[in-house]
C-alpha cells in the first residue's frame, strides 16, 4: 500500500513526475481536488480559491479563522487518503501532515530557476517576464502555505526522503528513481515487521 507525498516547484515537471509515478505503480493521484474537498468540508470555499490562486489575481483574502479550519480539514483529508493507501499526494503539506509515519515516502522535485521559467514559458506560451512572474508568485504562495500551516520552510532537506534536481534528470529517470525507492522502502518495512523481537536486557 504505497503512500508518496510529492512537493514540487512550478516548472520543475513535478506534476508530470507525479502522474507518471501514479500510472507506473497503479496508485491514486490526489492533488488539487484535495483543496476543494477540504474547503467545502470547512465551509470556507473562499480559502480554496485563495490557495488555488497562486498568482493572486482574484484578490481573495480569507480570515485567520477560515484559514485555520481549512488547514485542519486539509490535514484530516491527507491522513484519511494515506490510511487508505495506494496514493500519490501532491502538495498541500503532505510531507508535514504525514511526517514520521512509517512506510510513507516524501519526495521533493526541484529545478534551477531559469530552467523552470523556460518550462513555464514553453508550456503556457507566455513571454519570459510573465513566466518569471508566475514562477515567483508560485514560490511565494507554496512557501507561504507551509510557513503559515506548519512553521517550516519548504526547502528544508529534513522534510524529504528524496530530493531530485531536474537539472540532472528527465521525467522518466525521475520516475524510475522514485519507483525504486518505493520498492526498497517496502522491502525495508517488510523486513522490519518480520524481524523477531529483541531479547530482554542490553546484550
Describe how the helices and strands are arranged:
Layout: E1 3-8, H1 14-25, E2 28-30, H2 32-42, H3 45-52, H4 64-84, E3 87-90, H5 94-97, E4 104-110, H6 113-124, H7 128-150, E5 162-165, H8 171-194
Parallel strand pairs: 1-3, 1-4, 2-3, 4-5
Helix pairs in contact: 1-8, 2-3, 2-4, 6-7
Helix percent reads 55-70%
Tally of helical runs = 8
Q: Remind me, CATH topology?
A: Rossmann fold
The CATH homologous superfamily is called P-loop containing nucleotide triphosphate hydrolases
From the coordinates shown, what is the CATH architecture? 3-Layer(aba) Sandwich
Keywords for this structure?
203 residues, 5 strands, Rossmann fold, alpha/beta, disordered C terminus, five-stranded parallel β-sheet, 8 helices
Characterization of the model:
The protein has 203 residues and is α/β, with parallel strands linked by helices. It has one domain (3-189): Rossmann fold. Helices cover 57% and strands 12% of the residues. The protein has eight helices and five strands, in the order E-H-E-H-H-H-E-H-E-H-H-E-H. The protein has helices at residues 14-25, 32-42, 45-52, 64-84, 94-97, 113-124, 128-150, 171-194; strands at residues 3-8, 28-30, 87-90, 104-110, 162-165. It has a five-stranded parallel beta sheet, with helices on both faces. The longest helix has 24 residues, at 171-194. It is globular. Mean pLDDT is 88; it is low at 198-203.
Compact summary:
This protein has 203 residues and is of the alpha/beta class. Helices cover 57% and strands 12% of the residues.
Amino acid at each position: 500500500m504505497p503512500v508518496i507525498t510529492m512537493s514540487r516547484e512550478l516548472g520543475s515537471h513535478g506534476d508530470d513526475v507525479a502522474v507518471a509515478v501514479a500510472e507506473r505503480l497503479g496508485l491514486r493521484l490526489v492533488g488539487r481536488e484535495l483543496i476543494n474537498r477540504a474547503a467545502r468540508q470547512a465551509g470556507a470555499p473562499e480559502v480554496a480559491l485563495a490557495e488555488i490562486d497562486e498568482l493572486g489575481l482574484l484578490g481573495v483574502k480569507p480570515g485567520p479563522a477560515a484559514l485555520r479550519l481549512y488547514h485542519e480539514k486539509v490535514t484530516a483529508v491527507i491522513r484519511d487518503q494515506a490510511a487508505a493507501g495506494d496514493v500519490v499526494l501532491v502538495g498541500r503539506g503532505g510531507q508535514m501532515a504525514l511526517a514520521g509515519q512509517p512506510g510513507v515516502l516524501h519526495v521533493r522535485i526541484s529545478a534551477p530557476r531559469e530552467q523552470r521559467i523556460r518550462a513555464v514559458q514553453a508550456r503556457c506560451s507566455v513571454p519570459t517576464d510573465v513566466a518569471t512572474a508566475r514562477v515567483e508568485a508560485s514560490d511565494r504562495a507554496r512557501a507561504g502555505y507551509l510557513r503559515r500551516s506548519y512553521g517550516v520552510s519548504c526547502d528544508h532537506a529534513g522534510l524529504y526522503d528524496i530530493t531530485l534536481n531536474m537539472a540532472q534528470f528527465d521525467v522518466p529517470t525521475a520516475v524510475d528513481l522514485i519507483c525504486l525507492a518505493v520498492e526498497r522502502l517496502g522491502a525495508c518495512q517488510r523486513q522490519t515487521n518480520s524481524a523477531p523481537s529483541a531479547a530482554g536486557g542490553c546484550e
